[in-house]
Input
Amino acid sequence: MPEMNMVRALNLALHQEMERDERVVLLGEDVARVGGVFRVSEGLLERFGPDRVIDTPVSEAGIVGCAIGMALYGLRPVCEIQFSGFAFFGFHQLNCHAARFRTRSWGRFQVPLVMRAPIGGGIRALEHHNDSEEALYVQSPGLKVVIPSGPRKARALLVSSIRDPDPVVFLEPKRVYRAFREEVPEQEETWPLGQAQVLRHGRDVTLIAYGAMVREALEAAEQAEKQLRASVEVIDLLSIVPMDTPTLLESVRKTGRCVVVHEAPRSCGVAAEIIARLNEQALFSLQAPIARVTGYDIPYPFFAREMAYLPSTKRILAALRKTLEY
Amino acid sequence: MPRKVCETFQIEYLQILDETGQVDACLEPDIPAEDLRKLYRTMLAARLLDRRMHVLQQQGRIGTFPSVQGQEGGCLGCAYALRLDDWMVPSFRETAALFWRGLPMKNILTYYMGMEEGNRFPDHMRDLPIAITVGSQPLHAVGLAWAARIRKDPVVVMVFFGDGATSEGDFHEACNMAGVFQVPVVFVCMNNQYAISTPRARQTHAQTIAQKAIAYGFPGIQVDGNDLLAAYVASRDAVARARQGQGPTFIECVTYRLSPHTTADDARRYRSDEEVREWQKRDPLVRFRKYLEKRQLWSEAWEEEITEEIRGEIDEAIRAAEAERARVEPLEMFDHVYGEPPPEVLAQREEAAEFVDQPASLRQT
Output
């Protein structure tokens, strides 16, 4: 099995899906000639031509809104928003239209589009290039929200997202793009939306993370094992909507303790939702309050201070310790 | 180096049928007599339904709705230029055009009874649902047209929106995309002079709305939006251009809504009765009747006959809509959100089931 980073893995998914299904088209800013600012769509223009791989004007509402029209017509548009922080310009089109067309046409129309966008911080980027807005999409019923954490699942989830009959917001942690390689099979692979993955089995505490925070979580689990002699179960959520609640419940019922990690601000974030679900359905298994390690309720700082903002292995380890010692 | 003019532009205004029913014979389109009568009947149906809906609204049988009176001619003239396999993307005052495309009256009623069912148009109609958020739908039209071009289907997309919509960013992005990619779309701005209370002059300082097209690199034309013939001729040419691969066109229909914005609006707060009376003289329905009369296609007896027919259709549509309203299954609101509902939605459906009343018609069984 070839090893590749997340950029190559996503590129493989796009190549194979465009090959397999001529309804798949790609549109976005700088996606064709230069292959995207992160090079995720490299080589696609040469292979599939300018009708299917389209450089658009700088126009996020235009990109998302046109993708909706294309999807209504029967195409399978994959649109790229250059950075998730720019997706606000297209948010109205996603929330009020992509998410609702099926409902407001009472099932007649569907919008099978994918909106890809690099998300999250940690790459010393300019302002507006670092935020994590996933919770906004979770509050837009009708959308699905996916955040992979590594090359292999990113590829499989992108394939599943393109084939999904509903609009999928596919958020790619840019910090992970070239951070490491994984074996990714050449032949087709999918991963169901709404299925989490237990990355590491453990008995004492459940550590839930997604996106770039999964690596921090694994590292913290490693250290907890050594320093605290604790057996940590790590779950990669992968899909925020739908959420694999049964896997989370099963783990927490076993361990009785839980820490949830994300980069996004704390209040009303995804961790809050996870904790609410665990409280509703696993309260009597809990031996300690569930802890959150998140970004803070402040605007994402410029990069001189970003490492103080982002959850770190140290912060996760502290939360694990507190939870275990409760 | 002297300054020089690098670009100039002109905006054409088209009127074929004036308010007295006089027609410009040089510009008059060749529309079959049967179609002329059908077009008139369609306008009349939209007008009579609208009047009846005001009564239904006061009786509490339907909710708040935006009246379409005064705007029937422009939208219908435009839509008449489309083939049935073309796409039409309405805003919310295109009832006459939707009737022409095949929408049953019942859909308009159930929609304003608060039922999504009304927005599910018959499967044969290539029309998007009624769009409420102002200026949002031109992008969907551009996407449809773009997809048609990619698939090499010879279809055209026509989208309707108001003067207020032209101040929205999404509208401008739609025009820009359409111009850059030369997609087969016809933009129709139903400039009815007001966005609720805000007059046209507060939307743009430009002399015409049509000229906005120039900035995006395609032609714009202003037409008398209460003249069905002018709206048709401008649209016929625009549709032909689009179908031949010559890209988008912008049509500004200068019209007027004779009623308040919706049944919840009080138009006397922002416009005078005198102004409304002036526009009543330009009523598209009255004008078209005069035209048909001159062409000996209209008689009082026929008017009475079709009025009776339409009233019967309205009665029947109200009966059918109210029967459907009585059968509303509240829990169906969970069923059309996703192709395959996620577990959360299914669980919440079950939770809601304990608390909702079943419709009377289902309770019996």
The mean pLDDT of chain A is 97.
